Amino acid sequence: MTADTSPARPVRVVIVDDHKMFRTGVKAELSEVAPGRLEIVGEAPGVDEAIKVVRATHPDVVLLDVHLPGGNGRGGVDVLHGCVAQESLTGQPVRFLALSVSDAADDVIAVIRAGARGYVTKSITGSDLATAIRRVADGDAVFSPRLAGFVLDAFGASAGEIAEIDEELDRLSLREREVMRLIARGYQYKEVAKELFISIKTVETHVSSVLRKLQLSSRHELTTWAMGRKLV
Questions:
Q1: For a pLDDT cut of 90, what percent of the chain falls above it?
Q2: C-alpha atoms less than 13 angstroms from C-alpha of 166 in its C-beta half-sphere
Q3: What is d(CA 147, CA 160) in angstroms, rounded to the nearest whole number?
Q4: Which has the closest alpha carbon to 38: 124, 159, 126, 116?
Q5: Which 3 state secondary structure label does DSSP give 35?
Q6: DSSP type of residue 139
Q7: Alpha carbon separation from 22 to 14, 16, 28, 165 (Å, rounded)
Q8: 43 φ, ψ to 5°?
Q9: Quick check: 159 pLDDT over 80?
Q10: pTM given for the model
């Protein structure tokens, strides 16, 4: 049997940033340093537009600025919360890579807790950004060197433990992560439903799915699991 020599499918990318000139520059740079390997399938200037574009295009990776207009005023976190797990053309979940001028610990920790796979600053080179995008698409966690320390400090774990937590969280959709955190904080089903604007039946379905994916048997075990990983 002959080896498959067909070229790899390009990584499909959406760029979310409120500055049009920056989006244009990123597109041009990625096209130059990674021709044929990355495909820009959409862009958006704010939270509400970003959620619509991600849901419409099902990209592999979303380059996400931290500070954006719209939503509930939480910028990139609102985008992450608004994008219930999407399936890309390969059947893999959409992954998010924060790309921001901010290197503040609070910003880094907030988007990682919300579900982003990595965080790099806008001082990154075009070639390094292209590499980061492909790594995130493959499921790796990627951080600018200085920012990795924030994540390790926030989670109170070694790099190996962070990788293990990421692997377990990857089993959950973004919506399931939201439900998991609220349940772990002691919210009742009806309170979760009100908070996330979904039905109680949907909450019950998500909780059952979370318990099954994490191989847990009760809300108490879920709370212990989340607290032990500093996810609540």
A1: 39
A2: 20
A3: 16
A4: 126
A5: coil
A6: T
A7: 13, 10, 10, 33
A8: -150, 160
A9: no
A10: 0.65
